[in-house]
Amino acid sequence: MSDKLTADIFSFIEKTHYVGKKDFIDDIAKLLNVQKSSVYKKIRGESALTPDDIAKLGKQYQLSLDDLLGLQQDRIYFDFPALNGVVKNVMDYLNPIEFNIKRVQMINPTIYYTSREIPIFYYYTSPKLAAFKFHVFYNINWRDEKFKMTSFQYTEYETNADYLQKIKSISDTYLGLNSIEVWNITVFDNTLNQIRYFLESGLMSQPEEALILHDEIKKLIEKLQEACDTNSKLPFARKLKQAGELTLYNNEIAFTGNLIYVKSESIRTVYSTFDNPNFLNSFNPRLCDYTDKWLQRVINNSIRISGGNTREKNIFFHKILDKVERSRKLTESWLENNSNPAD
After folding, report:
1. Which of 15-19, 45-49, 145-149, 222-226 has the lowest average pLDDT?
2. d(Cα 78, Cα 82) in Å, to the nearest integer?
3. Do 268 and 280 meet the contact criterion of CB atoms below 8 Å apart?
4. Calpha distance 114→15 (Å, rounded)
5. Contacts for 323 with CB less than 8 Å, ≥ 6 apart
6. Predicted confidence band at 196 (pLDDT cuts at 50, 70, 90)?
7. What domains does the chain contain, in order, with CATH numbers?
8. What is the pTM of this model?
9. Which of 67, 203, 221, 292 is deepest in the core (most CB within 10 A)?
């Protein structure tokens, strides 16, 4: 293998996955099962990569020779962990999220988050809302088709110390990061529809939980309003040493799925929803450049909600709260009409 290609491979890995040189060298040595001195020789081109080395590096770091050689400029390599079928329950889902967001935290990034649904990390601040979303994910994405859909029962989650600790760890980390987020007034529509679907399908062990979930959404919205007043996530994270900045925009014309763009001085990466909550992920520099420009266009055509724009903020959240209140009244009506007379 040419010295240039070897250098390009290691340069790509270091720029897209590491902040410090030491961790980079340590991980490569462990992966290739060689001494650190051998890694330095390979990086300098004094020792060639074997086909087995390339295979290991490619699998671990999502390497694409098209990218490294400048081939197929219209093709982009994505990582899609869901293909491995490793998610069977909520902890299988949360463990890699915690690992990845902790790594992201190390590079001091700005997070760009565009979404038709409230960013999932805010749900993690409410154990009950998070549990309901995970229950939906289980039935729609994770459940083996041979099993029937199961009823939502929060008691399965509220006594699970690992679950409670994990969502707190993830939400605290996200709340400490600076983010620029683009939403619209439909961000809670999907969850409200899911609540009514599970209720009306008889898939809530305690039907009154549907009303409690609506109330939890209203509490979440109140905190989001507070955060917009100060451009800070402090209302969610009063006990944290540092709360991240929140810059929120409302875009009424851009139709987009959930997209997260992580941008720092050392690393950039794009996460895009395929089948929520599963994401495609790419470090491709051309995709990052494209995403950067696209986001700026979206923001330029959006209305800023945070940072003292009181009129726009009040209109925005009033419309969202109105949707929640109407959904809650429909839920109350359904419960009244379908309650057991014997109760």
Report:
1. 15-19
2. 12
3. no
4. 25
5. 185, 188, 189, 192
6. very high
7. 3-69 (1.10.260.40), 81-337 (no CATH)
8. 0.79
9. 67
